[in-house]
Amino acid sequence: MSKKKTVWFEVKEGESIEECLSRLAAEGYIVAGRKEEPLFEEVNGEYIPVRQLIQFKGVLADQ
After folding, report:
1. pTM score, two decimals?
2. SS3 string of 1-63?
């Protein structure tokens, strides 16, 4: 079964960016983009930033 040409890899909670990039490379992809968005939680009617969601766009490396 063939792999998808493009996959988004999310940096998991407790995982470093370097660990995510290593996981991406181990699956045979190279980085083609990055996106970030804040994750908020509502507390007492106010939105408090909890953490930053970071994703890397992986493109299948030529083999």
Report:
1. 0.80
2. CCCCCEEEEECCCCCCHHHHHHHHHHCCEEEEEEEEEEEEEEECCEEEEEEEEEEEEEEECCC
